[in-house]
Amino acid sequence: NAGVTQTPKFQVLKTGQSMTLQCAQDMNHNSMYWYRQDPGMGLRLIYYSASEGTTDKGEVPNGYNVSRLNKREFSLRLESAAPSQTSVYFCASNNRVTQYFGPGTRLLVL
Amino acid sequence: GQQLNQSPQSMFIQEGEDVSMNCTSSSIFNTWLWYKQDPGEGPVLLIALYKAGELTSNGRLTAQFGITRKDSFLNISASIPSDVGIYFCAGLRVDSNYQLIWGAGTKLIIKP
Predict the structure, then answer these.
(1) Which residues pair with B87 in a beta bridge?
(2) Which residues pair with B64 in a beta bridge?
(3) Helices (H) then strands (E): counts for chain A
(4) CA distance to partner chain A, nearest, from residue B107 (Å)
(5) Residue A31's Cα: distance from chain center in Å?
(6) Which residue, A8, A89, B39, B41, is most buried by CB atoms nearer than 10 A?
(7) Are A25 and A93 spatial neighbours (Cβ–Cβ below 8 Å)?
(8) pLDDT, tens digit (0-9, with 9 covering 90-100), for A13-61
(9) Which chain B residues are closer than 8 Å to A4 by Cβ?
(10) How much is the CA Rg of chain B, to the nearest whole Å?
(11) What is the pLDDT of residues B51-94, one digit of tens each?
């Protein structure tokens, strides 16, 4: 039982490049979330998916897209990366209230 | 964006000291959660609170759900080196659809 897994762990992009961050959970949770974490800012919600087939914007969705591929997987895509998207990205999942987090993806955009 | 007011931002303490931190909001919450994040890791749940006035312990950690439902407190007794990290509060508002609102974190540092 791996919980929430994220790939890659680290990534360096040039401005304008695109990439997809992958997230998977094996806890049969309905809801999945993408957050970004910046120093002194705590966690800010980018997008979430309350159930398979649905996605909704969070607090900071601009510059991102998501896909809930199936119940297990929820991906985050940066179509044209910008330096302001340099951050640590966390995926989380839950069935009720308690969210379980992945180890994070550290992204640097030059 | 919405955030809880979490304080203090950081704490420098001696090993063995007790620690207190809190989160407040102008909104009413159904649930309060306290998480800890170690460097290079994702947040891990420490304590969950579901009722106003509830006091729950997890080892040396004790958290309380404020009576007004607008605040919560976390205490750590007799701190040890492995307590260092960032502590986050998170709350679920009464009118929410399971979207948590997060505090900015309290960074705990133990003085050598």
Answers:
(1) B36, B106
(2) B55, B73
(3) 0, 11
(4) 10
(5) 12
(6) A89
(7) yes
(8) 999 999 999 999 999 999 999 999 997 778 999 999 999 989 999 989 9
(9) 42
(10) 13
(11) 999 999 999 999 999 999 999 999 999 999 999 999 999 998 87
Amino acid at B100: L
Looking only at the bridges linking them, the beta strands covering B10-14 and B106-111 are parallel
Backbone φ and ψ of B106, nearest 5°: -120, 120
Determine the Cα–Cα distance for residues B101 and A1; give it in Å rounded to an integer. 28
Exposure string of A60-85, with b = 16+ CB inside 10 Å and e = fewer, is: bbeebebebeebbbbbbebeebeeeb
CA angle B84–B85–B91, rounded 5-degree value: 130
Residue A71 in tokens: 């119940």
- Say which residue the tokens 């919560």 belong to: B72
In a 3-state reduction of DSSP, which class is residue B58? strand
CA–CA gap between residue B106 and residue A107 (Å, rounded): 23
Give dist(CA A80, CA B13) in Å, integer.
Answer: 43
Q: Smallest CA–CA separation between B22 and chain A, in Å? A: 15
In whole angstroms, give the CA distance from residue B99 to residue B84.
27
pLDDT of B49 higher than 90: yes
What distance in Å separates the CA atoms of residue A108 and residue A87, rounded to the nearest whole number? 7
| Residue B103, both tokens | 């505090």
